[in-house]
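Inverse folding, one chain.
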């Protein structure tokens, strides 16, 4: 049974379709990524999927339960990491976990038995008695992640879980999330870090203007939508060389002060660039960020 099924889901605010006839099925024991620019409808989709708001149309089944009718029952088996932390500043780390455990009907002894492993998971061992205001921003974020696991959930919804974390902390969280997947947990992840999505997700849905516009594994999305090589060119002589680039590449995109050359034959491009005055370049393989920008555009969303 899929942990989450959305069929024909729609939600409008003020006449604007924030979620527009969206269908999505999450496979058990996998990490499914939901990617999209700001305002694409990701957070609204998550709120609908958790029964926190009611859809205008469509069907939702969360862990086999129809929503919104059985939302409270279904959410007892779900862990949620929201975009913003909602920790109680008057409590210690341990007290925050114990207080949250009460929402799931956990007895104190059972909750306390889970806390050491959760703190180890979040890299907070030794911080059980620390008050929340004494923690760094990264520690607070990791505590929020640990808190979401206190009920040993089957499905874990992570809304930009590593925002504000330094690289070391991000890698620590990634390791922990991989362990959860190996334990058979199902993860639904939204993130603006494309490398995070590529590392963690088995399948990705790209959403824009409330609709899913592409869905597949990270590698399959890259193979299907982007040429295998990218040469990024920048420098004072770019305007003069841009005409030459179009004859060497299958596709070029100009963004800011950089020209992105998408090609099957990077050597032809780099050979033409070698020795050019005022130009520098970077040759790299195509990645998920290239797919994301091609499908959703490079314009800034507010």
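Residues assigned per position:
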């Amino acid at each position: 049974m899929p942990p989450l099924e959305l069929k024909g889901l729609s939600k409008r605010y003020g006449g604007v379709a924030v979620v527009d006839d969206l269908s999505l099925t999450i496979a058990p024991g996998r990490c499914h990524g939901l990617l999209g620019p700001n305002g694409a409808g990701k957070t609204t989709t998550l709120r609908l999927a958790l029964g926190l708001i009611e859809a205008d149309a469509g069907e939702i089944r969360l862990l086999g339960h129809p929503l919104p009718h059985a939302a409270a029952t279904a959410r007892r088996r779900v862990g949620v990491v929201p975009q913003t932390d909602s920790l109680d500043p008057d409590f210690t780390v341990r007290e925050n976990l114990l207080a949250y455990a009460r929402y799931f009907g956990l007895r104190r002894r059972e909750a306390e038995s889970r806390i050491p492993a959760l703190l180890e998971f979040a890299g907070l061992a030794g911080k059980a008695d620390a008050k929340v205001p004494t923690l760094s921003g990264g520690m607070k974020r990791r505590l929020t992640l640990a808190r979401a696991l206190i009920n040993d959930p089957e499905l874990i919804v992570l809304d930009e879980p590593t925002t504000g974390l330094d690289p070391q902390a991000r890698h620590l969280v990634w390791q922990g999330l991989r362990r959860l997947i190996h334990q058979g947990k199902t993860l639904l992840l939204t993130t603006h870090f494309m490398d995070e999505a590529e590392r963690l997700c088995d399948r990705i849905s790209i959403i824009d203007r409330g609709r899913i516009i592409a869905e597949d594994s990270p590698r399959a999305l890259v193979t299907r939508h982007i040429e295998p090589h990218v040469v990024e060119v920048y420098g004072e002589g770019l305007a003069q060389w841009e005409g030459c680039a179009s004859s060497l590449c299958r596709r070029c995109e100009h963004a800011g002060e950089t020209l992105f050359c998408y090609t099957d034959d990077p050597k032809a491009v780099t050979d033409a660039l070698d020795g050019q005055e005022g130009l520098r370049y970077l040759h790299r393989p195509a990645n998920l960020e290239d797919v994301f920008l091609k499908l959703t555009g490079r314009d800034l969303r507010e």
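The chain has two domains: 4-222, 227-285. The chain has a mean pLDDT of 92.
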